[in-house]
Write a structure and sequence with these properties.
Largest sheet: 14 strands, antiparallel, barrel
Strand content: over 45%
CATH superfamily: monomeric porin ompg
Helix content: 10-25%
Number of strands: 14
Shape: globular
CATH topology: Porin
Strand order of the largest sheet: 1-2-3-4-5-6-7-8-9-10-11-12-13-14
Number of helices: 5
CATH architecture: Beta Barrel
Distance between the termini: 54 Å
Number of domains: 1
């Protein structure tokens, strides 16, 4: 019975993200990542807008279907060093036969360093430690992300690899793999439109994902965002009303003095909505 219980979580979360194991490494940790799947977006946004980079602290709460929630706390030191603590709560599960109740959680510590190599070239390296708990079973892993950015005029071209590493210990003797991926990202700021466009193509072992994103700056203090993910192709159920906006997300960002508020919503069709709210505060 315990062997059956351990895999209920993976069946549940697979409806949202089609990968085999350690799904927490693929889930968003802030509102921007929810819509564009680019965890370096803020770094590139500061470069393209030529803004002064300031240290800040931020917190984010994301609510997913199936009673899954994500809480994240991040510290950015001038976007040279970024440290995050992420807690993913998959909720409580009940075995229908024994009525045994158990919970599942992931804890992720992520540290990332950004470097400027020359006037056009940047890089970033991130190391993530993940501790996953399902009932009394535990698994631990260590992964690395690497990005290389080439900036010319109003365009940043970046290549990346994500979640390359190893599993320290697994839930069972059955060998499972990390959700490794690699891809290409184009981020562009039009000359005559106060906006940023992003397109990202990411390849996993058994599927690929295309993300398209746009942030339109209405004023210096307010912007609107829209995003789309090709993962929607796996979420269609044949109902026109449910499928019409599946994979699309909308949001807005507003700032006042040292504070910034970012709220995003992503539509997963018949599965439901993902809601996210992020708040950050500059500290210098």
């Amino acid at each position: 019975m315990h062997n059956f219980i351990k895999y209920i979580l993976f069946i549940t979360i697979s409806f949202i993200i089609p990968s085999s194991s350690y799904q927490g490494l693929l889930l968003p940790n802030n509102s921007y990542v929810l819509l564009n799947s680019d965890d370096s977006y803020l770094f590139k946004k500061y470069i393209l807008l030529n803004n002064n980079i300031r240290s800040n602290i931020s917190s984010c709460l994301i609510s997913l279907p199936q009673d899954i929630s994500i809480g994240a706390f991040t510290y950015n030191y001038n976007y040279n060093i970024q440290s995050s603590i992420i807690i993913i709560d998959y909720g409580n599960f009940i075995d229908s036969e024994s009525e045994y109740t158990f919970s599942a959680k992931d804890f992720i510590i992520n540290n990332k360093v950004f470097l400027q190599i020359n006037n056009f070239l940047y890089s970033s390296t991130g190391i993530k430690y993940m501790s996953s708990h399902i009932e009394q079973y535990k698994a631990h892993g260590l992964t690395m992300d690497f990005n290389l950015y080439y900036h010319i005029n109003s365009l940043i071209v970046s290549g990346f690899i994500k979640n390359y590493g190893f599993i320290i210990n697994d839930y069972t003797n059955y060998s499972e793999s990390l959700p490794q991926s690699h891809g290409l990202n184009l981020t562009y700021k039009p000359k005559h439109l106060n906006s940023i466009f992003l397109i990202q193509y990411q390849l996993f072992h058994d599927y690929n994902e295309l993300n398209i994103y746009n942030e339109l700056f209405i004023t210096n203090y307010f912007s609107l965002s829209i995003g789309y993910t090709s993962l929607a192709n796996n979420l269609y159920d044949g109902n026109f009303n449910d499928d019409l906006l599946t994979g699309f997300g909308l949001g807005f960002t507003t700032n006042y003095k040292e504070f910034l508020l970012n709220i995003e919503i992503k539509n997963l069709g018949s599965i439901g909505l993902i809601n996210s709210i992020s708040i950050s505060k500059s500290i210098n």
